[in-house]
């Protein structure tokens, strides 16, 4: 009886995985949008101040965002542009402050599956980034743009004919006004 149940289970899983591979069809272009967790890094003076705030009971909530449009340049490679950022919010009672790292990038993803959005992939981004500080949701200071670059890895899951989910991890580096900023992010993206 257990062998029959195991055989049926394996058949159902195999059928689902086979159908899943055929769900995703190559598109003329792709929209990519995701949110997730981030871990920022800052110049020493800023990091020291933020560490002091944390010892005073200030809570921190870093959120990563990734939005872009891509076009196929090969069977499994896409090239496009993206806005990539991380908002690191600090809150105490009714006062809030955020340090926002953003950038505009030329971005490429190469998938090792049969088509874009399926299987293991590598990602590379090159462009310009900046940082801004907001107090109580009002921009109080913003930097000029500086060079930025990023690299990442992830896995794409087809979920319907035109939709894939990408689970990705990436690191973005920004050189802003002679200071080094970075952001490690893990995001879940819709790739349409």
Structure characterization notes:
18% of the residues lie in helices and 62% in strands. The chain contains 2 helices and 9 strands. With 192 residues, it is an alpha+beta fold. The protein has one domain: Porin. The protein has an 8-stranded antiparallel barrel with strand order 1-2-3-4-5-7-8-9. It starts with a helix and ends with a strand. Strand 8 and strand 9 form a beta hairpin.
What are the key terms here?
about 190 residues, alpha+beta, Porin, 8-stranded antiparallel beta barrel, about 20% helix, elongated
User: How would you spell out the order of helices and strands?
Assistant: HEHEEEEEEEE
Overall number of domains: 1
Which ranges are low-confidence, i.e. pLDDT below 50, for 5 or more consecutive residues? 4-24
User: How widely separated are the two ends?
Assistant: 43 Å
Average of pLDDT: 88
- Helix count, DSSP H or I runs of 4 or more residues: 2
Strand content bin:
over 45%
Pairing-aware structural class of the strands and helices?
Answer: alpha+beta
CATH architecture: Beta Barrel
Number of strands: 9
CATH class: Mainly Beta
Give the structure's gist in a few sentences.
By secondary structure, the chain is an alpha+beta fold.
Topology:
Layout: H1 2-23, E1 30-41, H2 44-55, E2 59-72, E3 77-92, E4 95-111, E5 119-135, E6 138-142, E7 146-158, E8 164-176, E9 179-191
Antiparallel strand pairs: 1-2, 1-9, 2-3, 3-4, 4-5, 5-6, 5-7, 7-8, 8-9
